[in-house]
Amino acid sequence: MDAKQLFFERYHGFREYPELLVAGMTEQQLRHSPHPAVNPITWILWHIARCEDMGVNRLIVDRPQVLDDRTWASRLGVPERHIGTGMTKKEVIQLSDRLSLSDLLAYRAAVSNRTEEAINSLPSHELTSELRVGTLRQVFVGEGAGGSAADQLVEVYAGHTKGWLLGHISLTHHYYHIGQAFAVRRMYGIANPW
User: Fold this and answer.
1) Per-residue confidence band for 18, with pLDDT thresholds at 50, 70 and 90
2) Which of 14, 29, 49, 146 is least buried, going by the fewest C-beta atoms within 10 A?
3) b or e along 115-151 (b: 16 or more beta carbons within 10 Å of the residue's beta carbon)?
């Protein structure tokens, strides 16, 4: 099994989680958090989709983001281009309140489809290429993906490979936040759907 096959073994399992997370929840529960220390599920789903869209498309395969296709930003109701890292609690709540939930799930699916397409066509040796500071700075600072945390994100990602980023942005980061979202469900007293 090569690195891409290993990636897809874990990545394909993630695709069902967004639908499972929203099952049985009201719009109010999805948009708001039961405790100030945790983010709403809507924000979590948006954040992981934005991180993957930016990370895979801009930093790994160097092409436009899904967000730039078919007026996704206006459909989602979110004019921001950043990925959400460093947002204040007030900003998280405002974003969660205005996101289009149906378009968010459609955007998430479009990002997943693009990731599979991109990684399938990426030569395996590209995964060992180091992320360049100039590219990181262009995407996080110049294109606005890093928001208020842009300089910190450049510092964190510098020196890593595209393979590391793929594993982080499309696997470990996802599962970390999905775990948070399932905890939010339980805080509302809603059983997890398995």
Assistant:
1) confident
2) 14
3) bbebbeebeeeebeeebeeeebbebbeeeebbbebbe
What string of H, E and C letters represents the secondary structure of the chain? Answer: CCHHHHHHHHHHHHCCHHHHHHCCCCHHHHHCCCCCCCCCHHHHHHHHHHHHHHHHHHHHCCCCCHHHCCCHHHHHCCCCCCCCCCCCHHHHHHHHHHCCHHHHHHHHHHHHHHHHHHHHHCCHHHHHCECCHHHHHHHHHHCCCCHHHHHHHHHHHCCCEHHHHHHHHHHHHHHHHHHHHHHHHHHCCCCCCC
Contact status, residue 145 vs residue 58, Cβ threshold 8 Å: yes
Q: Assess contact for 149 and 27: CB atoms under 8 A.
A: no
How far apart are alpha carbons 92 and 192 in whole angstroms? 24
Cβ 140 vs Cβ 154: under 8 Å: yes
